[in-house]
Recover the amino acids of this structure.
């Protein structure tokens, strides 16, 4: 096989993986992360403290470092916190 073709394919793969990470990191349109409002087993992803790393693994309702996507502008109305507020609450 052509060494230049192999190198080009490898570079394209690395660049494609990098683009996937950026796309996955963006919040869905019209949504924001709201901490402290997820019900047990209904969180959307990993928590801030690192005790679990996946959706649906929260053990209790309203844990401050578990989050759920909500419509933008509704988090405080639901009694939730922003990521910065949740981090500050965890440090206390």
């Amino acid at each position: 096989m052509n060494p230049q073709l192999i190198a080009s394919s490898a570079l394209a793969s690395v660049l494609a993986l990098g683009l996937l990470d950026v796309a996955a990191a963006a919040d869905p349109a019209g949504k924001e992360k709201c901490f402290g409002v997820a019900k047990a087993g209904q969180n959307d992803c990993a928590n801030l403290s690192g005790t679990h790393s996946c959706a649906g693994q929260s053990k209790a309702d309203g844990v401050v470092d578990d989050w759920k996507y909500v419509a933008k502008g509704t988090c405080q109305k639901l009694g939730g916190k922003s990521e910065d507020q949740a981090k500050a609450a965890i440090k206390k």
Summary: The chain has two helices and two strands.
